[in-house]
What we know:
Elements: E1 15-19, H1 29-44, E2 48-55, E3 59-63, E4 66-72, E5 75-76, E6 79-83, H2 88-98, E7 102-105, H3 111-121, E8 126-131, H4 135-144, H5 150-168, E9 173-176, H6 179-188, E10 194-196, H7 213-218, E11 227-231, H8 240-248, E12 257-261, H9 267-271, E13 278-279, H10 287-296, E14 299-301, H11 311-318, E15 323-326, H12 331-334, E16 340-343, H13 348-359, H14 363-374, H15 379-412
Amino acid sequence: MSRHDPDPVHGGSKLFCDLTQSWSEVGGGVRTYLLHKRRHILEATPHSHLMIIPGARDEVIEEERAITVTLGSPHVPASPHYRLMLRNGAVRAALERFRPDLIECQDAYNLPWAAILHRRTHPDTALIAAYMTDFPTVYVERPLSRVVTKPVASALSRICYGYCGLLYRRFDSVFSLSENGGAAKLRSLGIEPVEAVPLGVELGEFGPERRDERLRVKLGLADNQPLLIYVGRLDGEKKPDVVVDAFRRLPKALGAKLALLGEGPLRPEIRELCDERIIMPGYVKSRAELAVWLASADIYVSAMADETFGISIIEAQASGLPVVGVKAGAMIDRVTGAMGRLGPVGDSAAMAANILDIWNSDLSAMGEAARAHALQFSWLSSMEALFGRVYPAAFERRRARVLALSGAAVAAA
């Protein structure tokens, strides 16, 4: 194949590579995104797809145009569904073996540097950065502010954002999943251009028609008793403890119940509250079962302050649920006053007040507005943005860079 064809995405077959730490066998936004991308590549393009991901052992699976390289990696402490892929040498060996035309990295740690070093040897490789996690805030500022002073935590966060600027300016194209969930921050670091490319949602799997009154009866709920629902990991990043605290501030006469769908290190702590009104069915593997839970609830509640996209928010909205959340990250892009309420980060009292406000408002109208909003997020539109804008721009910048290097070499000779 020619790497310099006039149409850099559609003019001949290419090998697209995804290189990520953020892979989990039991779900997660990055895994969902990569599997949908692979499906799109195999079903709608002549291209091939290479994934380099962490796993229990080293393994290479080649299935015609789909290649998966798994590198044995240890579990992330306190997050057993994720692994630390620290073997940059093995990553570079895989890249050298398969020689992808384009490498996309979904995290900002050690793996992007393996891709950057690979491009030094193969300068015609295009590099893409996907800003999937706002890690300077999620993993630095917010957790450290609990053990050091806030000015120190903020200073360390600024250092990490400086690192992001240093790193991402080396890439041919950069995209985030929403304007307030990453794009605006990256532009403030001098990274240009930054595209906002929302992920997709399997909208056909979710809808108000999946409401199951039998489930509500089983939970002991009457029509005038609200069922609040949260879907996600039960850990410090997602802040389900704030949701629980907000729920427990509601008047008991309301008769509300809270369903927490997910697993994580905070589960025992929540269990120890011995609150029979809190339902914890664990991680729901079946998408059909998840759709029933969402449609059978009345309000979706999340305290996650640093969503870069918010798949669970969109799935809840597609199910016809108003959302109570926090005024930060992608939530700002996802929830308007017509479809929910946003309050201060970490303020369970304000969240409880917003839940009551929603319950006493026109739930039906809010649910309809939420579903109308969710319908814009399809995987087809996401793939069209990637293969129609982001990737062609990266190939064009790669081509210009290679030409500039060639010209410099000729001038030096």
